[in-house]
Specification:
The complex is a heterodimer of chains A (258) and B (326). Chain A is of the alpha/beta class. Chain A has helices at 40-48, 70-74, 92-98, 107-120, 136-152, 173-190, 201-207, 230-237, and strands at residues 2-11, 14-24, 29-33, 55-60, 63-64, 77-80, 161-165, 193-197, 210-215, 218-223, 241-245, 251-255.
Chain lengths: 258, 326
């Protein structure tokens, strides 16, 4: 598992992440929630090993991330960025293949891995299109497929981890659910763990077993979405939420308006 | 498309090399040039002299410098993640020229061994690249506008330095300096070619070996780290190899412009962005264009010759403008 122990990130005088404890466990989806500037992306970058914490530490399989080689780490965790600017006109399929460019699986498996990852992200029909010509949502799905391909290529039996930074931000409703459903099925299938930054509480309630609610870099609440109190949500987000139940009996969170 | 390109480009390379060897103020029949490696007796003694001492080193140097500049352009565009990067625009060539100028004027005769100029040009190229890379970053990310502005400043500074050296230099040094700033293969001989072989060969081979990493790097520094790359090490390696090669190429032929910018652009348009295709194809096309341009430069003003750098800029600049407009 990925374990953050009292991890902090300070840049200048700003405490972006302030003594956060969180565990990304195999077989579970953890949603990271919080208003803009709460430190969600900063926490994710610490979990990814991309930045060094100013305090505390993050470890994967009980070994601090700072002691992992970038290449070994890439076999065990993948990251779906909020938005990645691609400098050159690589095609969708080329980008998905980049997922395992530095950690290549046996040549025979490559085409299957790419095909399956593209199918999961529903981008198979875009495979030959240059990435810069696609819409924001299509690009996001491509990066999701790239991350799936990266981890599928390194299936050595050890649980792998997917970290996603607002992967649903530019997706239409069908693809929001599609992406999170395929994330959950990836978690079940591979016994991997996932941490996903979300703004939509309804999606968090439906697809994440655990939530971590951040406010000003600190943990405001932690646990199952259903146990999150309305008063805490209102205090953190500065707006109240109504918790409704849809026709299928699933929770819906609707902001009340100011 | 890729397969066709890897048939057409080597053929073009052979053709342009044959033409480059055959054409010039004293023309040699192309058939004799083609047969010469197998049967030395097809050439007259005088032709053999021209071939051995003038044409062969010149064409070989042209091939190497052309390949090097194009590969450097492709690699720098990959490192800066910007299709506008080019050894000329971001100041690498200017830095190398300033290094060479420093050596010509201040080095004196005892320092002017065959390795002194390439070494000075290399140091100049490294310093210029580090300055541009350092100044062109904002919050740990390469920022293209700052990078280009830094390149302009480095170019201006290097230009001023070269101007200063031409002001204080004597007549001979002035002539040598003028040669650097225009770019020409005219001084090519075995004495310029031999010391260039190893550094350029190393740089080309090293850049080819980095192709997959450059692909990954195109996604961004963070994303490259997520995929298992140590981005800092990669940037250092690629910048070091590029400076080594460009420094050597500039020391031997002066700052020949636009090949590094235009060639990777063209290749990317036709063959896509993957560096495993882009780098070797750019090397071949760069070599073809430079040797072709050099041959044209010899013929256009025969028996005198145009500096090939001048010709490349004359043709390359309008072509680049056309690329920008489409």
């Amino acid at each position: 598992m990925i374990e953050a122990q009292s991890v902090s990130l300070t840049i200048g005088t700003a405490n972006l992440v302030d003594r956060v404890d969180v565990t990304i466990a195999p077989g579970r989806v953890t949603a990271i929630l919080g208003p803009n500037g709460a430190g969600k992306s900063s926490l994710l970058s610490l979990l990814a090993g991309e930045r060094k914490p100013s305090g505390g530490q993050v470890s994967l399989s009980s070994k601090p991330l700072s002691q992992w080689r970038a290449n070994d780490l890439a076999r065990r965790r993948a990251v779906v960025p909020q938005s990645a600017q691609l400098a050159f006109p690589f095609t969708v399929e080329q980008v998905v293949r980049l997922g395992f460019a530095l950690t290549p699986p046996p040549p025979k498996q490559r085409a299957d891995i790419v095909a399956q990852a593209m199918a999961e992200a529903d981008i198979t029909h875009l495979r030959d299109r240059p990435l810069p010509t696609l819409s924001g949502g299509e690009r996001q799905r491509t990066h999701f497929a790239r991350a799936l391909a990266q981890l599928a290529a390194n299936d050595d039996g050890q649980p792998a981890y997917l970290l996603l930074d607002e992967p649903t931000a530019s997706l239409d409703p069908a693809h929001q659910h599609g992406l999170l459903a395929s994330l959950r099925s990836w978690v079940r299938r591979t016994n991997g763990g996932a941490a996903v930054v979300l703004h939509d509480l309804t999606l968090a309630a439906r697809y994440a077993q655990d939530v971590l609610l951040l406010s000003h870099g600190k943990v405001a609440a932690q646990g199952a979405m259903a146990d999150l109190e309305g008063a805490v949500l209102e205090r953190v987000y500065g707006i109240g939420f109504d918790r409704l139940t849809d026709s299928a009996g699933q929770a819906l969170y609707v902001a009340r308006g100011l | 498309m890729v397969r066709a390109a890897f048939v057409v480009l080597p053929l073009g390379l052979v053709l342009v090399a044959l033409l480059g060897l055959a054409l010039g103020s004293a023309a040699i029949p192309i058939k004799a040039v083609a047969l010469w490696p197998f049967d030395a007796s097809v050439l007259t003694a005088q032709q053999k002299l021209i071939m051995d001492n003038i044409r062969l080193p010149r064409v070989m140097l042209g091939l190497m410098v052309g390949a090097m500049l194009a590969a450097a352009g492709a690699a720098l565009q990959g490192i800066f993640r910007n299709p506008l990067a080019d050894p000329g625009l971001i100041g690498v060539s200017a830095g190398a020229s300033l290094g060479a100028a420093t050596m010509i004027v201040l080095g004196g005769e005892h320092l002017a061994g065959p390795w002194a100029l390439p070494l000075a040009a290399f140091v100049g190229a490294v310093l210029a690249t580090l300055a541009v890379y350092g100044l062109g970053r904002r919050h740990g990310m390469v920022s293209p506008p700052s990078m280009l502005l830094a390149g302009i400043a480095v170019n201006a500074l290097a230009g001023a330095g070269i101007g200063l050296f031409s002001y204080v230099g004597d007549d001979l040094q002035l002539r040598q300096l003028t040669f650097w700033t225009m770019g020409s293969l005219g001084a090519a001989g075995w004495s310029t070619l031999t010391p260039s072989l190893l550094p350029i060969g190393l740089s080309l081979a090293g850049l080819l070996a980095l192709a997959t990493r450059l692909d990954v790097f195109a996604l961004g520094e963070r994303e490259a780290f997520h995929l298992g790359l140590d981005p800092r090490l990669m940037v250092r390696l690629a910048v070091g190899l590029t400076c080594l090669g460009v420094g050597t190429a500039v020391a031997a032929a002066g700052p020949v412009g636009f090949i590094g910018l235009v060639v990777p652009h063209l290749v990317r348009l036709v063959l896509g962005a993957g560096h495993r295709v882009l780098l070797p194809a750019s090397m071949m096309l760069g070599a073809i264009l430079l040797v072709g341009a050099d041959t044209a430069a010899r013929l256009l003003a025969a028996p005198a010759e145009l500096p090939v750098g001048l010709l490349c800029s004359l043709l390359g600049a309008p072509f680049f403008l056309w690329l920008l407009r489409r």
